[in-house]
Amino acid sequence: MESYSLGIEKLDENINGIRTGSNIMIIGPPMSGKETIVNNIVYNGLNEGEAAVIVTTREPGESVVDWFSYNNLEIPIEHLGIVDCVTKTLGVPTSDTATIRRASSPVDLTGIGVKISQFLEDFWMKQNIQKTRLCINSLSTILMYSNIQTVFRFLHVFTGRVKASGALGIYVVEDGMHDEQAIATLKQLFDGVIEIRQESDIHYIRTTGMSQKPSDWYEYTIEGAKIVLKG
Amino acid sequence: MAQTGIPKLDEYLNGGIPKGKSLIYFNHPGVEGDVFGMQTLHHNLAKGVTCVYVTSSSNPETMKDQFSEFGWDIHQFDDKLIIIDAYSPLIGDLSNENYVVSDPESIDSMTEMMNRAMKEVPKGSIIMVGSLSTIMDLCGEENTLNAVKMWNKMALVRDHAIIYNFTAWPYEENTLNSMKDNIFNCVISVGGIAERVIFGQYFGVLKADWSEIEARSMLFRVLRPGGIKIYIPKILVTGPFNAGKSSLIHSLSTRAVSVDRLGTTIALDHGHIDHQGFSADIFGTPGQERFDPIIKMISGEAMGIFLVVDSTLPKDFVRAKQMLDITKGYGLPYIIVANKQDLPGALSVDEIRRHFNIPEDVPIIPTIATSKEGIFEAFEVLVEKITGGN
């Protein structure tokens, strides 16, 4: 059966393939390297001939592309689509490129939705790629501008699209920014969670909901563009 | 009368939107429904009409810049374009506009600015609410609908045409239904044709209380520059040798051409159909295996498929399934046309379904293509599948 992998070895061994159409939340404290983890998951997919759509709410689309080249990670750029929710709010005149399409702000969920759909259509119909990873980095920023019901409705539609198209959805949430009820509400939409916790400067990672039992907690460090798991 | 500036739509609405009427573009998430409002706004500004635009999800300058994507420079109409800024205060920005909603999360604050602007602009202006869904997200569903009723009344008193862009996220069913049924004079539904991904977009008039209209829908594409253009979709007719594909196309079409030799099609059949407000180009492929690459080529651009079979020849069904598989990779909606029902030994729909072993939701329509029996029904069923019945 077709499935996805994260590209993080120990976690992948435990999961043994993520079902197509799955929606997964990554939750962790600030500065724990979630960005690097997401980019690795994207890179892993691009490497396997899949496509990827990244919705960026914290940094301009160009910075996302630059991360890959800065770290000497070669990617097939025509398989990457970025929905940039930042640049237009800065008031700098910009236009869309083949890789980067810009929504007018993180409030503009309609525009973000249209641009995600366009990339999904392009990859499926024009490039004939039937596996795509959709990453929203981060839901927390979107939640700063819109209330939880609004974001829930938006996600309800797009987690549904991920399911229908057999894609893989990855959604980043900042731990500690939202109340527990908000997190519990969002969790209803997800099939699994990648959890990150921090104890006296050491970071740990595990997966839940993606295999029969949660994986063990692995200590990890970020070395350049790589995530290194210990144990 | 204000025109929408959308091709075909003004025709459907008997010329456009009469003074004092309300219209909503009811957009399904992920389709480019916003462009409808933008095109209407630009069209009217260019004709010298005063327009009021309520911006809720981007600052006024970003909003104006978005028009340039379509080749529309609306900065030149600054004296005719009045902005109600319901965005800047939301993110704590200062606004240069004359009309600023001090608290975009309060519906009363919205209504106050709407009323003031509608009073102060000349009668017969166009009022455009850029994102009713954002207002609804911020102020609540019930509050917003109650306010909208007031705004519509105010527009009626002042002879303005009031137009809303709305993204139909999964709100309460009551909310969505009353929006479609009671609150607006006219509802234009903008939707997507989705199987695995959205691969086509259409609009249709659900309601317009000033004119007798039949339900119609039109496929469109958004061009940059250019805006909304009507798009005539392709429908593929495929099926085994001598199943009656050419007869089907000729019977359906207002005009049709076949390239054939000794009565069998050797290249392509082509026809055009206009039925109940839906037009399509129909392409038929020959049944012989050596022409299979043609099926592949056309299905990449098609919107839906008729699989035609001879109901008296179950031995050909294997070949029919094989032809369907060629097109299936594209995830297109399809129906089975059980042709030659007038011949002795023709299998019934249930028998054919058993032979094919296909899901219950795939329609099988009995037809006699040569005498046009069942064929328009088949077309309607396929269109319904394509547009999801919306």
SSE blueprint:
The complex is a heterodimer of chains A (231) and B (390).
Chain A: E1 3-4, H1 9-15, E2 18-19, E3 23-28, H2 34-47, E4 51-56, H3 61-70, E5 80-84, E6 100-102, H4 109-126, E7 132-137, H5 139-145, H6 148-165, E8 168-174, H7 180-187, E9 192-199, E10 202-208, E11 218-223, E12 226-229
Parallel strand pairs in A: 3-8, 3-9, 4-5, 4-7, 5-6, 7-8
Antiparallel strand pairs in A: 1-2, 9-10, 10-11, 11-12
Chain B: H1 9-12, E1 22-27, H2 34-46, E2 51-55, H3 60-68, E3 81-85, E4 99-100, H4 107-120, E5 126-129, H5 132-139, H6 141-157, E6 161-167, H7 173-181, E7 186-194, E8 198-208, E9 217-223, E10 227-230, E11 234-238, H8 245-252, E12 255-261, E13 264-275, E14 278-284, H9 292-299, E15 302-310, H10 317-328, E16 334-339, H11 349-356, E17 364-366, H12 375-387
Parallel strand pairs in B: 1-6, 1-7, 2-3, 2-5, 3-4, 5-6, 11-14, 11-15, 15-16, 16-17
Antiparallel strand pairs in B: 7-8, 8-9, 9-10, 12-13, 13-14
Task: Outline the structure in words.
The complex is a heterodimer of chains A (about 230) and B (about 400). Chain A has about 230 residues and is of the alpha/beta class. Helix content of chain A is about 35%, strand content about 25%. A ten-stranded mixed beta sheet of chain A has the order 6-5-4-7-8-3-9-10-11-12, sandwiched between helices. The radius of gyration of chain A is 17 Å and the shape is globular. The two termini of chain A are about 30 Å apart. The mean pLDDT of chain A is about 95. Chain B has twelve helices and 17 strands. In chain B, a hairpin with a 3-residue loop joins strand 7 and strand 8 (about 200-210). The longest helix of chain B is centred in the middle third of the chain and has 17 residues, at about 140-155. Chain B is elongated, with a radius of gyration of 25 Å. The interface of A and B includes residues 109, 113, 146, 150 and 153 of A.
